[in-house]
């Protein structure tokens, strides 16, 4: 898992506008899961349609980033681009009835994806080990055994580490994570 | 708005943002370089009648000769831009 940087969205946008390719890579890294989730979870697009929308959304972000008025509003802008393109894809697949259902209901799904994004941002405040363990277990469906082997930790400790890291993530989210010496995983 | 997150809810939310396929992410990251190549090629075609003819008569072969391996979406865009000229 690529470790996220601490750059704000606004700074990321400014650097992308200045032609900084590394900033662009960071933007893609930060938002690739978000756009992917909108495609496959929010609109249940097929793999082919999702790939088309995914690439098109990032192309539009790249070519239109100068038009974003509020640099800190990157996420809602990307969500809007992704939702519009997903609706186009659904219409193209001639599933108009499904489109109607999703057009009414997708707001909740995207809201949940937004909440997931906030959790993921909070995850970035945890130690690298916690980030890896939680991402591998929850987002990549890796087994305790695989996690233990790949992170070189005793397999018998994976479950307890997951529980401990979830606790830290909850603290991070609730703003109660006071730094304590030796408290990081 | 203050939200509370029990561990079950956190697990559910962590499962939502799964990694996109690596190839998709890589292609998106390579957009700046690919678009620069495309822009340079269009500029050269504007100045070079022979290159413009080559591109118009057989785009895939011409791109291969140029050593460009562009995403099909960019090839389609290049085709549109050349047609407009």
Secondary-structure-based class of chain A equals mainly alpha
Which architecture of the largest domain in chain A per CATH?
Orthogonal Bundle
User: What proportion of the residues of chain A is helical, as a percent range?
Assistant: over 70%
Report the average pLDDT across residues of chain A.
Answer: 87
**SS content category of chain B:** mainly alpha
SSE pattern of chain A: HHHHHHHH
Oligomer: heterodimer
Q: Based on CA inertia axes, which overall geometry of chain A fits?
A: globular
Helix and strand sequence of chain B: HHHHHH
| Poorly predicted spans of chain B | none
Report the sheet with the most strands of chain A, covering strand number, pairing sense and barrel closure.
Answer: none
Tally of strands of chain A: 0
- The level-1 CATH class of the largest domain in chain A: Mainly Alpha
Whole-number tally of structural domains of chain A? 2
Q: How big a fraction of the residues of chain A is strand?
A: under 5%
* Percent helix of chain B: over 70%
Total beta strands of chain B = 0
Largest interface here, residues on each chain?
A: A-B, 42 and 27 residues
Characterise the protein shown here:
- The complex is a heterodimer of chains A (185) and B (85).
- With 185 residues, chain A is mainly α.
- Chain A contains 8 helices and no strands.
- The longest helix of chain A has 28 residues.
- With 85 residues, chain B is an all-alpha fold.
- Chain B has one domain.
- In chain B, helix 3 crosses helix 4, helix 3 packs parallel to helix 6 and helix 4 crosses helix 5.
- Chain B starts with 6 loop residues before the first helix and ends with a helix.
- The mean pLDDT of chain B is 88.
């Amino acid at each position: 898992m690529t470790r996220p940087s601490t750059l704000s969205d606004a700074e990321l946008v400014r650097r992308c506008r200045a032609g900084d390719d590394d900033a662009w890579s960071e933007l893609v890294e930060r938002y690739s899961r978000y756009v992917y989730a909108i495609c496959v979870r929010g609109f249940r697009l097929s793999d082919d349609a999702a790939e088309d929308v995914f690439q098109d959304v990032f192309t539009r972000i790249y070519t239109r980033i100068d038009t974003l008025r509020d640099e800190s509003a990157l996420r809602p802008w990307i969500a809007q681009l992704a939702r519009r393109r997903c609706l186009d894809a659904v219409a193209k697949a001639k599933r108009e009835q499904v489109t109607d259902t999703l057009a009414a209901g997708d707001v909740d799904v995207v809201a949940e994806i937004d909440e997931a994004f906030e959790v993921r941002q909070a995850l970035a405040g945890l130690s690298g080990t916690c980030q890896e363990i939680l991402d591998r277990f929850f987002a990549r469906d890796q087994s305790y055994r695989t996690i233990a082997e790949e992170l070189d930790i005793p397999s018998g400790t994976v479950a307890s580490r997951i529980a401990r890291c979830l606790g830290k993530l909850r603290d991070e989210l609730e703003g109660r994570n006071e730094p304590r010496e030796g408290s990081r995983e | 708005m203050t939200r509370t997150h029990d561990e079950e809810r956190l697990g559910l939310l962590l499962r939502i943002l799964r990694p996109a396929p690596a190839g998709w992410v890589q292609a998106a990251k390579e957009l700046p370089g690919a678009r620069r190549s495309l822009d340079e090629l269009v500029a050269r075609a504007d100045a070079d009648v022979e290159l413009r003819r080559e591109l118009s008569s057989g785009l895939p072969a011409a791109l291969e000769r140029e050593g460009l391996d562009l995403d099909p979406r960019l090839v389609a865009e290049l085709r549109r831009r050349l047609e407009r000229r």
